[in-house]
Amino acid sequence: MAERDAAIYDGLARVPEVACEKGAGLDALLKGAREPFVLRGLVADWPLVAAGKESARAARRYLVDRARDRPFSVSIGPPGHDGRLFYDADMAMNFRSGTGKLADIFAGIEAAEEQGEQRTVYLGSIDIPSHFDGLDEANSVDLGAREPFRSIWIGTRTRIAAHNDFPDNLACCAVGRRRFTLFPPDQYRNLYLGPIDNTPAGRTVSMVDFDAPDLAAHPRFVEAMAHGQVAELEPGDAIFIPSMWWHHVEGLEPFNILVNYWWRDTPAWLGQPQAALNHAILAIRDLPAADKAIWRDLFDHYVFDAGKDVTAHIPEKARGILAPLTAETAGRLRAFLLRMLSK
C-alpha cells in the first residue's frame, strides 16, 4: 500500500465534540441538527462495549450467543487484500460476497488470526432485530419518538470509500476504533464520484483512494479536504452524521464493531430522492439542451421553489398532488408511477 500523502491531511478540522446525557439531552441535540458532532462515551455502558474491552474473542462470543440461526451476508477479500472494499481494475468489486452462519464466519476470522494472516472480512449493515435476539434491548440508545433502522457492522481492518446516505445517522463505536472523514454535501464535485448503478454497497462512492490520493487524476480533492473534518472513535463513542454528508470510514483495529441508527424526520411514505434522480437520468438527461432547459424551469416551479403561485388559482379541493402530500395522495402518486414505469 502506498504511503498516505500526509500533506493532504495537514490541518484537517476535527469534528466538534459535544457533551450530553442520554434521553432528552440527546433528543434536543439531534432535533434539526445539520452539522456533525461527536459524543464521547455515549454508549460506554453497553455490555457489547465491555465484552470488546475484554477481547475481540469475547465480543464475538457475545454476538454469537445472541445470533439467530439464519444466514449472515459477508464480504471477503482475496489473499493480500488491503481492506479497501472497492473496485478492481475492471470496475468489478474487489471482494466476493456470500452468506454463512455467524459462528462459522467468526471461526474463519479466528483461524486467520492464529495463523498471522491478514484477511478482509466485512459484515455490513446487518439488521439487528432480524439477526439477533436481545442485542438491541441490551445495547440501545433512546432516540425519543424516532423509529430508526438499527444496523451492526462487523469486520477486520477495512476502508469504506466516501459515500453519503439520505437518512440521518448516529454511529456508535462498540469494539475497536473507527476513523470518520466527513465532507459537507456540496463537496460531491471534489470527491470524484463513481457510477450510480455499479456500487460496492448501493451508494455512489468517491473514486479517490484516501490512503494514496492521485492528485494528477483528482486535483479537486485538495479542495474537498479543505472542507473536511475527521474524528477517531474509541469504544463507547458515537458520531452524528447528518443526512447527505459524505463519510469515509476506516476500521482501525484487527477486529471492529459499529452499531448505527438511521432515521428520517420526514414521513416514511414519502419517496426516495435517489429514485427521482435515477428517473430524471432516464427521462430528461439525454434530451436536447433546449428541452432540458424547459424541464429545469418546470422542476424549479413545481419542486424546488413550489411557491403559492403554483396552486393559488386552483380550487383547494382540486389541487391533488400539488397540495402538501398526505399518506393517501402519496400512495396514489406511487401507484401512478409504478403503472407508468411498467409500460
TrEMBL record:
Gene3D superfamilies named in the record: Jelly Rolls
Residue span(s) of domain JmjC: 110-280
InterPro entries the record matches: Cupin_8, JmjC_dom, RmlC-like_jellyroll
SUPFAM superfamilies listed in its UniProt record: Clavaminate synthase-like (SSF51197)
Region forming the signal peptide: none
Highest rank taxon of the organism: Bacteria
A Pfam family of this chain: Cupin_8
Protein's UniProt name: Cupin-like domain-containing protein
Record organism: Sphingopyxis indica
